[in-house]
Amino acid sequence: MPGVTHDEAPLLADLMPWSVAPLRPGRGWPMGPDAASLRARWAAFVRAGTAEREKLLSPSRSRTLHTAVAQLPGHPGGTVPLAAESGPCPEPVRVLHGPFDEQWLIPDHRLIDTARPELWRVAGEGQLFLVEQGHVTGSTGPAVLASAVLPDGRSPAGRPGRIRPLFRRPGGDEPNAAPGLLAHLSTALGTDVGAGDLLAWTLAVAQASPAGCRVPLTSDAGLWALGTELGRRMLALQARGDGARPKLPGGRRPYVRAPLPARPAEVAYDAEEEALCVDAGRISPVPREAWDFEVSGVRVLELWCARRTETGEAGSLEAIRPKEWPQTWTSELLELITALALLAELRPLQEELARSLTSAGPGISTDVLHRAGVLPVPEAARRPASVLDHHEEGPGGQFALI
C-alpha cells in the first residue's frame, strides 16, 4: 500500500487545532536585542513631558497615552494610563522575534497593540510553541519552527503563520492535539505517542503548502521512530530552553578572528574564506550552509545581523541602542551560526525520510482520520481552554473577570 501523498497529508491546523495569530506590537521601541537599551528607552519615556511622551509612544488606534488595559498575564505591569506612569521599567523578558532571533520585550500591555494574552497565560515551564512560517514559492526553508520562549509569530516574508502551543494549559497540561489523535497514533504504531512525539515528528516532516502546513503521518513504527528522533535533534537546536549550547566538532567551530566594531554598518560573507565579515570584524569558519540557511526565502544570519546594525530614527526611542557591540551578541551570533550549520546537516536525513514516506505504507491520510472519528475537529478544541485560576489586574487596578 503506497504512502500518503502531499495533498492527502493532514493539515497541522487539524492536528494541533488551537492556534493564535501573531502578536501585533504596533511600535518597535519596546522590543530590542538587549535589555539595557529597553530600560534606557523606558527611562527616557517617563522623563518626557506629556507632549513629548505622546510623540515618543508612537500612538495607534489601539494604544494611546490614555488607553486603559489589563496586565499581561503573569507580569506585574502597570495599569494606570501611560500619561500618568512614573514607575520603573517592567523587567524585560525573552521573546522570539521571528526565526531564530531571541530578543527582549518590555512586558507591558499598554505598549503592545495586540499582545495575545491567551498565549501569555500558558507560557512557562513545560511549554513549547510551534510557529508556522510564511509560505514562499520555491523556498527551501523549514515550514515550521519550535520555540521554548514566547514567539511573536513574525515571518520574515510571505503570509504570517500561526502560533500553536504544545499544551492548552500552564505546566504542560492538556496536549493541543485533535481529540483522539494521540490514541489513534498509539494504536496504529503499537507504542505510546505523546504530545512531545507529535511535535518532534512535525518538525522532521512538515511541508509548506499554499493551503497551510501539512504533516504526513505513518503507521510504520520504524519510520516513526526515525522521524521522532530526528525531530528531537532539530528541537534541541531550535528551542534551547534548557540553556544547552550547540557545538560543532573541533576545527569546525566558529571563532572571532578579528574583533567586531562598536557599531558595524555592513555585514557580508566571504565564501572563499568561509568568513562572516562585520565591517572589519571577522568570524570563521562559517559554513556556506549556515550563511545560506533561509526561512520564508530570507537568510536568517543576514536578517539577525541587520537588526543589530540598524541605527533607528534620530530622536526616536529606537535610536537608543548600545554604544558598543555587546559581548553577549557575539556569543549569541556564534551559537546561531553553530545551530544553523547543524540544522543544515540534518536536511539530507529529512529528505531521506520524506522519500521513505512516499514509498512506504500504509500511511495515515486525512481520510483515514475522518473514518476514525478524529476529524473533523470539534470547535471547542480550536478555542483556548479556560485556564484562569488567579486574579489578573485589570485597568486602573480593578481585577479582571475572565
Q: Any overview of this molecule?
A:
The protein has 402 residues and is of the alpha+beta class. It folds into 2 domains: 6-245 and 355-400, no CATH class; 255-352, no CATH class. The chain has helices spanning 12-15, 35-47, 50-57, 117-122, 181-189, 195-205, 221-238, 288-291, 300-309, 327-359, 366-371, and strands at residues 31-32, 93-96, 102-105, 129-132, 144-147, 163-165, 167-169, 173-175, 217-218, 255-258, 267-270, 275-278, 281-284, 294-295, 298-299, 363-364, 392-393, 399-400.
Give the termini distance in whole angstroms: 50 Å
Q: Percent helix among the residues?
A: 25-40%
Count the domains: 2
User: Which geometry do the CA atoms define?
Assistant: globular
Largest sheet: 4 strands, antiparallel
Arithmetic mean of pLDDT = 92
Low-pLDDT segments, ≥5 res = none
Query: Beta fraction of the residues?
Result: 5-15%
Task: Tell me the series of helices and strands, N- to C-terminal.
Answer: HEHHEEHEEEEEHHEHEEEEHEEHHEHEE
Rg on CA atoms, Å: 23 Å
Spatial order of the strands forming the largest sheet: 10-13-12-11
Total strand count, please? 18
Structural class: alpha+beta
Please work out how many helical segments DSSP would assign.
Answer: 11
Explain briefly what this protein structure is.
With 402 residues, this protein is α+β, with helices and mostly antiparallel strands.
Key phrases:
14% strand; 402 residues; alpha+beta; four-stranded antiparallel β-sheet; three-stranded antiparallel β-sheet; 11 helices; 30% helix
Furnish the topology, listing elements before pairings.
Elements: H1 12-15, E1 31-32, H2 35-47, H3 50-57, E2 93-96, E3 102-105, H4 117-122, E4 129-132, E5 144-147, E6 163-165, E7 167-169, E8 173-175, H5 181-189, H6 195-205, E9 217-218, H7 221-238, E10 255-258, E11 267-270, E12 275-278, E13 281-284, H8 288-291, E14 294-295, E15 298-299, H9 300-309, H10 327-359, E16 363-364, H11 366-371, E17 392-393, E18 399-400
Antiparallel strand pairs: 1-3, 2-3, 4-5, 4-6, 7-8, 9-16, 10-13, 11-12, 12-13, 14-15, 17-18
